[in-house]
Amino acid sequence: MAVQGVLSVDLEVPDVDVGIRFYTDAGLVAARAGEVARLRCVDQDRDSIILHGGAARKRLRHVTLRADDLDNISRNVVPMGGSLLKAPDGSKNIGLWLKDPNGMIVHLVEYPPERDLAVVAPFEVNAPGRLVRKNRAAVLPNSAYETAKPLRLGHILVFSPDVSASVAFYTEALGMGLADRSQDVIAFCCAKKDSDHHVVAFAKSPGIGFHHASFQVTDLDQVGRAGRFLVKKTGRGEWGFGRHTIGSNFFHYVQDPWGSWLEYYSDMDYIDDYSRWTPTNYGLEDSFANWGPELPRDFTHNYELDAAAH
Ligand SMILES: [Fe+2]
Fold first, then answer.
1. 145 C-alpha to center of ligand 1: Å?
2. What are phi and psi of 108, to 5 degrees?
3. Which tens digits make up the pLDDT trace of 1-58?
4. Rounded distance from Cα 69 to ligand 1 centre (Å)
5. Distance 134 CA to ligand 1 centre (A)
6. What's the pTM value of the predicted model, to 2 decimals?
7. How far apart, in whole angstroms, are the C-alpha atoms of residue 173 and residue 31?
8. Model confidence over 52-88: pLDDT tens digits?
């Protein structure tokens, strides 16, 4: 009875072409039908980002999560402060549609487990007393590298006006685990079995909204290289290269055309059995990064609320 992972994010955007350009520059593959663009990782058979064009402003439409035991979940939604919905117009009438207590629409669907990613050569790091890479260079000339291609959508971070209420709902109604949090400002939820450290995370804001979608790449070099490439190609804002304390992943964020973010990550903590994981409530000084560049001023700005006020 639980959410098992994230499948996709649906966003309303003003101009679908602008979105296709950004996400294809980021290494995703696009398919367009009218005002809807579907973006997926090259080696995956499912969409990760779905853009609905022609909107007055960017807005989170809904998130789609992989889950099982939907009947049982459906019985928990209303007692835990959510509501059950009919499938929105134009959406598939499968799975379970619901609204969380903060008004975010969630689509739960049963979906086959993700395929294991292909095994890659280990990222070898020479360290004091541990020389594992000898008689060869670690890094090749830049021209030797192809543009990084995201492997999979690993997690999403959304804004929440009440992070504790979000955690209560996603853990108690949807069967997720609280991996870690930082006070009432940010919280990270995982699946209870075979999960990245976080699948859905919540950051405090006066209202709901989409903050970022995070795509896994093979290693930290690819995080840095892909981030630099996308910044140069798009001229957009960035935060990275750095390493998070919470989840331990290396990160590089690039700002999307509407002020939210795409993250490349590698080497995230993994929770194969939630009963063996102990959540930590970190101080605010650890809520963003262990190390990295200065945070952009608007990194946690919820542009969806600005637009709503006009
Ligand atoms: Fe992230």
1. 25
2. -100, 130
3. 699 999 999 999 999 999 999 999 999 999 999 999 999 999 999 999 999 999 999 9
4. 27
5. 34
6. 0.97
7. 34
8. 999 999 999 999 999 999 999 999 999 999 999 999 8
Residue 62 Cα, ligand 1 centroid: separation in angstroms? 18
Q: How far apart are CA 34 and CA 45, in angstroms?
A: 21
As a whole number of angstroms, the distance between CA 49 and CA 63 comes to 10
- Give the distance (Å) from ligand 1 centre to CA of residue 264: 8
Residue with tokens 């979608």: 213
* Token pair 């955690």 in the structure block, residue: 167
Burial (CB count within 10 angstroms: exposed 0-12, middle 13-18, buried 19+), residue 221: middle
User: Measured in angstroms, how far is the CA atom of residue 179 from the centroid of ligand 1?
Assistant: 13
CA distance 183 to 93: 38
Distance from Cα 24 to the centre of ligand 1, integer Å: 20
**Cα end-to-end distance, the chain, whole Å:** 41
